[in-house]
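Annex B. Sample input.
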Amino acid sequence: MQRFTSAALSILVAFGVMLSLTTAASANPIAGGGYSSSYAGESVFTQNQVGEAGQMSAIFFNDGSQAWSPGVVGLLVCAADKVTCNVSANGTFATNWFSPTVYATVTTTVGAGQNGFFVYSFTVPAGTPTGTVTTFYGDVGLIATGAEFRPQGYFQINTVPTPVLTLTLAPTTASVAVGGTQQFTLSGAPSGSTVNWNVTGGCGAVTNNGLFAATSMNSATQPCTVTASTGGATATAAISVYGPASTLACSSTPAGIVANGGTTGGTAIARVTLKDSNGNTVSNGTNAISLTNVTPSLATVTPTGTVGATNGVATASVASTLAAGTIQISASSTGLTGCNVQITSGAPGSSAATRTTFTNSPIAADGTSTTLLRVDVIDANGNRNTSDASTVITVSRDSGAGACNVTALTTGTGSAPGASGGSATAVQGRVEFTVTSTTTPGTCTFTTTTNNASVAGSSGSLVTQITGPANKLQISSNDSPHSAAANTGSCTTVGTGDTNPSCTHIVVSVRDANGSPVTSDTGRTITATFDTNSCTGAGGGAPAVNASTTTSGGLATFAIRSAGAYSSCNITFAATGVSGVNTTAVWTPGGVTQLTCAFSPTPIVSDGSSQSTGAVTAADANGNAVSSGTFSDNFSRTSGAATSQITTSPQTTTAGVAYFIVKSQIGVSGTDTYTPSISSGTSIPASSCIVRVN
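Annex B, continued. Sample output.
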C-alpha cells in the first residue's frame, strides 16, 4: 500500500513515477487530455473469514483539468505487476463490482482539485484456506478504453485469519481407578477436523476418540494430564489415577469452632477420606470406617460407629458443647492406617453486641400463636458468648402495639415483662421473651439495649398475618441423607444428642390455602406412611418412625431411623381435614463388611435342566448391598452333589451383586451348599447359601 509521509518524500516518489513514465512504457496507455490522478488514501487492510463480506475504499485526488464523471472514470482492476490494468482478477471475491475489470466508478462528478472516492465490496469465497492473502491491485482510468491517468500502484489486502478455537474437555478433571477408564468429550473443534490426543505424566493412555485407560497410580507431585489438540488450540484435563485404599486422611471444615453449644459458629463437618499409597482419594472405596468421638464432653458427633464412604469420603457433623478444648474424632478401618480429626473449640470472645431474632416469623394473627423473641449476646465475630451471665438485656416494642404483645420471660433472670417489653439478665449469653399475636395483623418492631456501653444493641421485626383455616401440610425441613444403622441408640424429635446415625428429622407444618403457616394449630395428629416399593427390600429392613409429636404451633417433628439403605424412600404425611404431602429420605449403606448369598428359585427339580441363580452381594454390617466399588467373586460348592455350577468363577459385581447359575443333576435330590469368596484383594467374611433339589 502506498503511503506518503512527508513533502520531500512525496516529491521524490512523484519524480520517480514521472521518470518511470518517460523511461519505460506503461502496460496500459496513458489517457492524457487533462485526465490525471494522485493517490490520496484508502481504508485499512481487512481480515475477513471465509463467507464473510467486506468493503474497501480508495481515495484519489483529481490533479488534472478534466472532471471525472460517473460511468466514465473508474478504479480499474490491475494485475500483480501493478501496471497491467483493466484486467479480470480475484473475480471469485467480486460482489457487485462495476464490471469484471472495474472495481467501482465515482458516484458523483469529481471536479479538478477534488477527491474522488471509489468504494467496492467483496466476499471471501468458500474453500479459501486459512492464512490466504488476497491482494486487490488497481489504478484510476477510463472505463471504456482502460487508459490509465497516472499509475500509482494502489493495492489493498485481505488476509483470511486463523480461526480462534476454544476447545473444552469434559470432564475437566477426573479420578480413575487403576485399570479403569474415563471417556472424554471434546467440544469446540471444527467439524471433520483431526484431533490429536495425548497423555502426559505416564499414568495411562488415551485412544483417538478420547477414551482414557488408567494404567498406574500418580500423585500430586506426579501430575498427569489428558490433552486434545487441533487447529493450533489445546484443551487439557487433569487426571488422578488411584490404587487400593491404604490409609485414612482426616480433615474438618472449619478447623476451629466456638464452644457455644452448637449455635452459629459452633459447628463443623469432619471428613475422613480413603487414600491410596500416593495420597489420591480412592473414589470407589467401600471400606467400612469406624468413627469414635474421643471427647464427648466437648462436642456431639453424628454419626459415629461404622459408616460408609461416598465417593471415597465419609462425613460427620460436629456440634460444640459449652466446654472449650480440642475436639478429637478417631477414624479407623480394618487393614488401613487410621487418623484423627482435631478441631479447636475455643471460648467465644468478650461480649461486643447483641443479635435480635424471632424463632418463628410470620405467625398467625389469631390471638393465640406465639414465637420467641431471642436476644443473643455475641462477640466481635458474631459468636454467642455463652459465658456471659451479667449483661442486662432490655427489649422495647417500638411499633405494632396492636399486632403483638410480650407475654412471658422464657430465658434469663428478671421480673415478668409488660406487653411492650421487659428486662432480664442473660443466661449463657441469651435472653428470650414469649411474644403472642393479637387478632390484628401487622408488624411489630423491637429494639434491644443493654446496660453495658461496650455491648451494642440491635433490633428485630415480627410479622403477624391473617391465616385461613388449616388446608394442607407442607414439609418445613428434612435433614436427609443419613447412614443406615442398626436400630439402637437415641433418635428423638429434639435431635440434639442422638446417637443413632440413621436418625432423620422431618418437620411437617400446617398451612392455610395460601400457604401461610397456621401457627395456632396444636394437637393435630399427623401420620407417616412408607411406600412399599421404595422403602422395603434392603438387607437392613424397612425404616420406621422412632418418635413423633402431634402439632404444636403448627409444626410436627418426626424422628425416623432405618437399618436398611434406600436411595429414595418416599414418605407420605397425612392428617384429617387437610391435604397430605410427600417427601423422600435417603439412607446410605456403610462399608463392605461381608458377602451374603441367596438362591432363587429353590427348590428345583432333579431333571438335569432346572436351574437356580445364586446372588452374591457385597454388603455392609446390616446386610445392605453396597453398590459402589467392584469385587471379583468366586463361588464354589462346599457340600452336596445334587447340582453342578454353570457360571464360572470369578464374576465381577455389578451394583454390588454377582450372579452364579447352577443346574440340577438327573435323578439326584438333596441340599447343596455354596460359599462365595473374594478372588483377590482383602478377604471379606462370607456366609454360605443352600439350594434344594427335589
